[in-house]
Sequence to fold (250 residues):
Amino acid sequence: MNDQQLLRYSRQILLPEVDIAGQERLLNSKVLIIGLGGLGSPVALYLAAAGVGELHLADPDYVDLSNLQRQIIHQDASLNQQKVESASERLKQLNPAIKIITHNSLLQGEAMLEAVKAVDLVCDCSDRFSTRFAINRASQAANKPLVFGAAIRFSGQMSVFDPRLATSPCYACIYDENADDAELSCSESGVLSPLVGVIGSLQAVEALKVLGNFGTPAIGKLLTYDGLRSEMRNLKLLKDPACSCCANHA
Fold:
C-alpha cells in the first residue's frame, strides 16, 4: 500500500483483526453485487469505502423516482439512468482508486455463472425468489461464498452461505423454490427506508469478514431483524442432506 492508502484505510488498519494484511486482502478482492437497489446501495457504498479493490455491479433496471426513498446510492439527477451507471458514478466519486465493472442486463444461465466465477464473493441484493435461487446455484457451481440479504415492510434477514465448507447450508436448504416472486414486491407490500440500510450494512460487514479473513462470518446462521419491535434474533441453520442444490456438493 502507498501512503495515501495507508491514510485512507487507517481506521480499519488500526483494528488488530484487520491490520495491514487484512486491508491488502480487501484491496486484492473482487465482489459481485447483484441488485443496486435498497440493499445493494449500502453494500456497494461500504465495500467501496472499505477498499474492496474491484466491484462488479449487476442490475438491468433504471432509476425511478419511487426508488429514491431507500436506494441511497442514486440521486434525483440519476432519474431514468441505468442503475449500474448511476451507482458506478457515485462509487467513483467516493473512492476513485477502485475498479468497477458493470452488467446492465439480467444475468441468467451461463452469463450468471461466468459473472460469479469472475469474483471472490457474491452479495445477493436482489428482490426476487427466482433470482436468488439462480444466484445460489451459480455460487454453489463456482464454489464462491454468497452473502444473502432480504428486507420488506419492517423486517429483514441476512446470512452467509459458503460452499467451500462442507457443513455450510445454502439458500435452497432454507427456502422453498416454488415461492412466488410477487410476495417480495416492495411496490405492493412497502418497506421502511432505513430498514434496507440496516440489512445491507450487515451484508457489507459479513462480506468484509469473509474477504479479509477475520472474525466469524454468519455461516450456519440466519440473522433476523424486526424493526417494529426492535428485536434481532440469531437462528441456527443446518445443511439439508436432501437439498436439491448442495446435497451432492463436493
About this structure: The two ends are 37 Å apart (CA to CA).
